[in-house]
Amino acid sequence: MGAERRLFFFALATGAAVFNLLHTFLGGLLMFALLYWFARWTTKTDSQILRFLLNSGKMRAQYDPMKFVPVPVRGMRHA
């Protein structure tokens, strides 16, 4: 198939949902084709990118403004 199984199933289920909600075969087929193309592209490009994107909201932020230490910067007149 060329795409990860979970992404293929998601594309298939979303296409079926669009078909059932909008009562149009073309809309369901178009949604499936678009999501299937996206699934193949992400699997071919980097198979772990979706895992990083979906888990990024759970990660703790690294920047803490209360721990900011200003860096002294000196200007030079004659370089």
Features:
mainly alpha, 79 residues
Task: Write up what this structure looks like.
The chain is built from three helices and no strands. The protein is mostly helical. Helix 1 (5-22) runs antiparallel to helix 2. The radius of gyration is 23 Å and the shape is elongated.
Strand tally: 0
Gyration radius, rounded: 23 Å
Summed over residues and divided by their number, the pLDDT gives a mean of 85
Structural class: mainly alpha
- As a percent range, the share of helical residues equals 55-70%
| Regions with little confidence, pLDDT below 50 for 5+ residues | none
Shape descriptor reads elongated
Order of helices and strands: HHH
* Major sheet summary line: none
**Annotation field: number of helices:** 3
Determine the oligomeric state from the structure: single chain
Give the N-to-C terminal Cα separation: 61 Å
Strand content: under 5%
